[in-house]
Design brief:
alpha+beta, 53 residues, 2 helices, two-stranded antiparallel ribbon
Length: 53
């Protein structure tokens, strides 16, 4: 079993975790049934095909 060589301080670990930030989803404007909508770019095709409401 792998064992860390030194113990990492709690404040060091938490400050590293605190730097992580979520990035906002890229939205694209599409026209579905005559209405313009903002949808996530990766779901654009599903909306155009009518698979999502």
């Amino acid at each position: 079993m792998a064992v860390p060589k030194r113990r990492t301080a709690r404040s060091r670990t938490r400050s590293r975790k605190a730097q992580w930030k979520a990035t906002p989803v890229a939205l694209v404007r599409i026209r579905v049934d005559g209405q313009e909508r903002l949808v996530p770019a990766r779901l654009r095709r599903a909306y155009e095909r009518g698979l999502l409401p």
